[in-house]
């Protein structure tokens, strides 16, 4: 029998023994409740404890282990869950245990005493094959420059096989493919603010989630699953990732998305970029604080405050109340202060009329309400945004008249009918803390994913839920878009700061996005994140990006055809489309009776998933179809970053449908101005430069592996054609006009618009033409 077959037979025998031991444990635990006897409460407690252990066993069809490491004379099998037999012999070590460290951290340069690392490929509990790293041999070959890049980086067949497997609507755990750089971050100290910068395909989300599992194991029983919160940007994203931790045996971790992180969920109110940025600024916290305490006042026409009626009534002069209020205002939350003031009135009523019946609760509440109204967060914010007078009174010199105009909106007739935007949620949460104090649900560790886009007010919302400041924050600055697109992590670490140390780390190895795809997309990096080091990508995909030119008046049809072609091959497809073509694409999907999922509505299907670029962040697909890159770039101030996001969502195949420009890069002359635009964040500044036409990319034949330079290159493959030389200027002018129009609508009554526009033309010296 060949050597490999003998090894495989011995390894399978160990897997079989471990499986029998695990299933025997499962049977024992399954009967624990009924076998315990005794009082019902005791039996229930035993059953609950047994059920928790059952969750940590994994499924009966799961492989017992995914790897093995030999350290000296010890042979350790590594799996998701520890397994022992009846004699308490350890058959499998769980991956979070310290003993498993050499499996993940050993390298040719520092093997940590390990001589062999073996990674198994399994179908259920049957070993299909294995991949060995003999560290002494690898070190020798590295010294002789005879080792591949994959071997040096620790990329093995198990990882490549995992990436070849089809994606689905749920993220999978990747514990068997964790490499040493990721493992070092996973097991780093809990008591810190750990910020992880990682480009597309570096596995940053998986690292953060597996770090949770590692912390739960190594800090038990002090750290429980319900002590950990994972925050994502949207419900779609949290649904996508929430299957990872249960797969590792860690249920009951709390998942929240930013649209619901407060007393009221977002109802999808649509607001422009300028108002979304304004509402995210830290000065909004001061505005809310001032506005709330301004609600505590003696009404102008009130001469006395009367508690009760008839002979038992007690009256307080205006001067008495005004002198007393400072004793309660600002002494804790709004609600605590209100209760304190109510107690004062109750004591005084009893003291001034000791023989009277005293004030009933409804009578006291009515008196308090006249001076100190009872408020909820939604009622307070509705009242504030619906009143220019209240906004102006609270703003002081911190806000301009134009900004007050932006914040003002017509209040709904009923509080329950008020519509709230995503950015309103953080303001509601701020108001809730002012009203009722810090949230009762606070967490010992918080994971924040896609953190690069968060506003300061959203960061405050997260920070107030942390007990100590212990957090893992992950994201990619090159994918930072929206009103709070940023170039560094500095302001995020400042707002989330605590007494704990802060550490910024970078994942340098990219292996989930294919090399050909990333080389194509990375041509955007000098323009979207010039100071960011790109990851080293170490995996080739099955094909080069497919660049297909289509008629600009018929984009939806080819887009659907491309998506159906990929789906017909059993691939999980992301169809990433700008708003310009969205309605027509949806009509095509319906007309052809195609089953599809709307990512923006929180859905992910096993086939075709339609998303805007911003909605696709953090998701992975087997195949991605990107529709009209020029339109993507043109629809947002951060369009180049949105395009970068869209192009890097695939683990295998990329199809780009373009109308003449597959990768619309600015020229060198325009790039400096684009960077300036990013820094000032002002649309008005964008009109200061004149942009030449973007470069073009032509279709390429399949890549020749022997070619020295075979990637699609936007600058080298340029040609003239249908795109106007002022296309970027048109986009900038449109954005500036939208911003000015928003200011005009919010600050000036409609009947004055024409007069204002006329005066503006005069100010600019444009005359009447």
UniProtKB/TrEMBL annotation:
> Region labeled Disordered — which residues?
689-722
Q: Which Gene3D superfamilies match?
A: P-loop containing nucleotide triphosphate hydrolases
Domain spans labelled UvrD-like helicase ATP-binding: 177-514
A Pfam entry, by short name: UvrD-helicase
* Top-level taxon: Bacteria
User: Is ATP-binding among this UniProt entry's keywords?
Assistant: yes
Biological process terms from the Gene Ontology for this record are:
recombinational repair
For this UniProt entry, the molecular function terms from Gene Ontology, in alphabetical order, are: 3'-5' DNA helicase activity; ATP binding; DNA binding; hydrolase activity
Keywords attached to this entry: ATP-binding, Helicase, Hydrolase, Nucleotide-binding
Its GO CC terms? Answer: cytosol
Locate the residues binding ATP. Answer: 198-205
Entry's InterPro entries?
Answer: DNA_helicase_UvrD/REP, P-loop_NTPase, UvrD-like_ATP-bd, UvrD-like_helicase_C
> Quick check: keyword ATP-binding in the entry?
yes
Basic and acidic residues bias locations: 697-706
Please give the name of this protein. UvrD-like helicase ATP-binding domain-containing protein
Query: Which species is this record about?
Result: Knoellia sinensis KCTC 19936
């Amino acid at each position: 029998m060949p050597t490999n077959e003998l090894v495989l037979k011995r390894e399978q025998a160990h897997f079989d023994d471990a499986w029998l031991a695990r299933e025997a444990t499962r049977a024992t635990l399954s009967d624990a409740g009924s076998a315990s006897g005794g009082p019902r409460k005791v039996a229930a407690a035993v059953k609950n404890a047994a059920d928790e252990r059952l969750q940590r066993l994994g499924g009966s069809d799961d492989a017992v282990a995914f790897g093995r490491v030999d350290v000296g004379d010890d042979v350790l099998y590594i799996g998701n869950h520890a397994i022992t037999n009846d004699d308490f012999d350890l058959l499998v070590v769980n991956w979070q245990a310290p003993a498993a460290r050499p499996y993940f951290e050993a390298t040719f340069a520092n093997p940590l005493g390990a001589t062999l690392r073996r990674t198994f490929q399994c179908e259920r509990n049957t070993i299909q094959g294995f991949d060995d790293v003999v560290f002494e041999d690898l070190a020798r070959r590295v010294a002789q420059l005879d080792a591949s890049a994959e071997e040096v980086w620790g990329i093995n067949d198990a990882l490549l096989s995992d990436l070849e497997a089809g994606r689905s609507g749920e993220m999978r755990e990747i514990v068997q493919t964790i490499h040493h750089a990721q493992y070092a971050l996973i097991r780093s100290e809990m008591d810190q603010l750990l910020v992880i910068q990682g480009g597309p395909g570096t596995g940053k989300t998986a690292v953060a989630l597996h770090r949770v599992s590692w912390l739960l194991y190594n800090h038990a029983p002090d750290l429980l699953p319900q002590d950990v919160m994972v925050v994502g940007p949207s419900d779609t994203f949290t649904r996508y990732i929430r299957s990872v931790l249960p797969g590792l045996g860690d249920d009951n971790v709390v998942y929240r998305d930013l649209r619901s992180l407060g007393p009221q969920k977002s109802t999808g109110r649509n607001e422009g970029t300028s108002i979304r940025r304004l509402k995210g600024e830290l000065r909004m916290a001061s505005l809310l604080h001032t506005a709330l305490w301004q609600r505590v006042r003696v009404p102008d026409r009130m001469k006395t405050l009367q508690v009760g009626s008839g002979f038992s009534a007690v009256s307080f002069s205006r001067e008495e109340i005004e002198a007393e209020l400072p004793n309660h205002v600002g002494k804790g939350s709004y609600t605590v202060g209100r209760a304190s003031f109510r107690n004062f009135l109750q004591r005084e009523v009893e003291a001034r009329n000791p023989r009277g019946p005293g004030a009933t609760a409804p009578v006291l509440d009515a008196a308090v309400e006249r001076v100190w109204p009872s408020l909820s967060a939604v009622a307070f914010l509705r009242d504030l945004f619906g009143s220019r007078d209240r906004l102006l009174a609270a703003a002081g010199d911190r806000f301009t008249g134009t900004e007050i105009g932006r914040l003002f909106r017509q209040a709904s007739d009923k509080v329950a009918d008020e519509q709230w935007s995503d950015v309103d949620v953080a303001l509601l949460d701020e108001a809730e803390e002012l009203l009722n104090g810090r949230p009762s649900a606070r967490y010992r560790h918080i994971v924040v994913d896609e953190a690069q886009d968060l506003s300061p007010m959203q960061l405050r919302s997260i920070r107030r839920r942390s007990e100590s400041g212990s957090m893992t924050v992950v994201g990619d600055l090159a994918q930072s878009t929206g009103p709070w697109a940023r170039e560094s992590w500095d302001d995020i670490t400042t707002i989330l700061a605590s007494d704990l140390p802060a550490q910024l780390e970078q994942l340098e190895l990219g292996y989930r996005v294919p090399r050909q795809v990333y080389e194509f997309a990375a041509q955007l990096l000098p323009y979207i994140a010039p100071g960011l080091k790109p990851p080293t990508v170490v995996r080739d995909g099955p094909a080069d990006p497919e660049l297909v030119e289509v008629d600009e008046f018929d984009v939806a049809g080819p887009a659907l055809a491309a998506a159906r072609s990929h789906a017909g091959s059993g691939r999980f497809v992301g169809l990433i489309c700008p708003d310009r073509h969205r309605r027509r694409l949806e009509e095509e999907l319906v007309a052809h009776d195609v089953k599809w999922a709307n990512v923006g509505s929180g859905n992910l299907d096993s086939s075709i998933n339609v998303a805007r670029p911003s909605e696709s962040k953090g998701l992975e697909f087997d195949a991605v179809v990107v529709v009209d890159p020029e339109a993507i770039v043109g629809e947002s101030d951060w369009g180049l970053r949105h395009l970068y996001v869209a192009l890097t969502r695939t683990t295998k195949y990329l199809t780009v449908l373009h109308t003449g420009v597959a990768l619309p890069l600015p020229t060198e002359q325009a790039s400096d101005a684009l960077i300036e635009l990013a820094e000032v964040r002002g649309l008005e500044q964008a009109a200061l430069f004149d942009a030449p036409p973007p470069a073009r990319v032509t279709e390429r034949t399949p890549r020749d592996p022997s070619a020295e330079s075979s990637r699609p290159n936007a600058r080298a493959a340029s040609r003239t054609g249908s795109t106007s030389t002022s296309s970027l200027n048109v986009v900038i002018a449109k954005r500036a006009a939208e911003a000015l129009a928003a200011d005009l609508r919010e600050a000036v009554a409609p009947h004055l618009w024409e007069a204002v526009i006329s005066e503006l033309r005069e100010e600019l010296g444009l005359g009447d033409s």
